[in-house]
Amino acid sequence: MNALFMIVAAILLLGPLIAIHEFGHYWVARKLGVKVLVYSIGFGPTLLKWQSKKSGIQYQLSALPLGGYVKMLDEREGNVAEQDLPYAFNRQSPWKRIAIVAAGPLINLIFAIFLFWILFLPAQDQLNTRIGKVLPNTPAAQVDLKVGDKILEIDGQTTPTWEKLNYALVNRVGETGQVSVLVDRAGTEKQVNLSIKDFLKDQSQSPLDALGFLPYRPVIPAVVKELSADGAAIRQGMKEGDKIVAINGVTMKDWFDVVEVVQGSPEKLLNIDVMRNDKIVHLQVMPQGQRDNMGNTTGVLGVKSDIGKVTIPQEYKQTIQYSPLEALGVATDKTVQLSGMIVNSIVKMVRGLIGLDNLSGPITIAKVAGQSAEMGWQTFISFMALMSVSLGILNLLPIPMLDGGHLVYYFIEAIRGKPVSEQIQMFGLKVGMVLLGSMMLLALFNDFMRL
């Protein structure tokens, strides 16, 4: 995936989100009688602009697509003709200003619901939440969860899909205690508690790997179908058709076992036994280290298997089909759940339960946008919906300079009957600039470290 593709994908991702955010401010402002001067997508030098002859509003596209703004008539930003004073933003009641400012983040949340609704409309064939594998020496193994157990609830939340199950677990990131799991075992419900300590604080594992239970996965023989020309395996003598039978003396039952060991062994020498022409051949191979989008390093051999036609047992399958109204309800529920997760993560980050290295900036967003675009329109739309939720929630944070900071001032004004003093607002502006600047620098630093 080249840089140009990532940049285009990022623009296609962020452009609509920024445009619709600013449209929320713009539309409500005009409906409430406030005069809009400029509607801009992006910051910096103007690339394209035109002016409406009817309204006099200047619409423009600027060079840096990392934000946008709606400039309204305001006495604090310049002289306003006497006949235009009733249309100035600062002359409006606090409740009108609250509506205008809140409209941006809220329309992002509504847009996310719309995108999720599109994704939920088609029938979906997927795995149900029946356990396909229990990892040894994990919390799941310690409480005797078994292959075939169907997970019904996590911490009291119903989990009809693996996605819902993962969301329920992500809410426990950074915590120490117990995760309550309700399972169906051959028609009988059973409650178990999985012990966690600083759960996923270092983000090196998925929630399911950390707890030790995985979805069903088909048996794929550990036979090498293809070798990368510059991979570690081909350099150390591995050949197409080799069947990997053991790594460091541990028997490999299928291809997933191989992937699990290799990914967990970056830059570590592995003793690999392969079956070649009915004979065991001993190889020593060191997987290359490869960083993912969150900066975690995994091992890569440079080999591919022949997946072939995958057959999934009926007891592990389910088809989910929603009516348009049901899909809307599920989309709304998912948006609310994601919003809660984001707020919960921010609180835990402030409390130190989650590391600041989880902050991501524009480089990581561009990489993920590019990868999701390569995976298909549904994955891309799903990521766009997630980013829309994030944009809406982050803008509602009570930080000066953000929409949430302005809302705090206007709510105080509505309650007190008079505006917050200019001195306090200026102090808040400086604090907000420092906070946002520090967060942006940290996010960029994390991006570069992941590279």
Gyration radius, in Å: 27 Å
Biggest sheet: strands, sense, closure? 4 strands, antiparallel
Average of per-residue pLDDT values:
86
Q: Tell me how many strands there are.
A: 18
Low-confidence stretches: none
Written as H for each helix and E for each strand, in order along the chain, the element string is HEEHEEHEEHEEHEEHEEHEEEEEEHHHHH
Give me the secondary-structure category: alpha+beta
Strand share of the residues? Answer: 15-25%
| Terminal Cα span | 14 Å
The helicity comes to 40-55%
- Number of helical regions: 12
The rough form would be described as: elongated
How would you classify the quaternary structure? single chain
Walk across the major sheet and give the strand order: 6-5-7-8
Explain this structure.
The strands form seven sheets. This protein has a four-stranded antiparallel β-sheet. The chain has a four-stranded antiparallel β-sheet with strand order 12-11-13-14. Strands 1-2 form a two-stranded antiparallel sheet. Strand 5 and strand 6 form a beta hairpin. By secondary structure, it is α+β, with helices and mostly antiparallel strands. Helix 2 crosses helix 8, helix 2 packs antiparallel against helix 10 and helix 9 runs antiparallel to helix 10. Among the domains are: 129 residues, no CATH class; 90 residues, PDZ domain (Pdz3 Domain), CATH 2.30.42.10; 85 residues, PDZ domain (Pdz3 Domain), CATH 2.30.42.10. Belongs to the peptidase M50B family. Its EC number is 3.4.24.-. It is found in: Membrane.
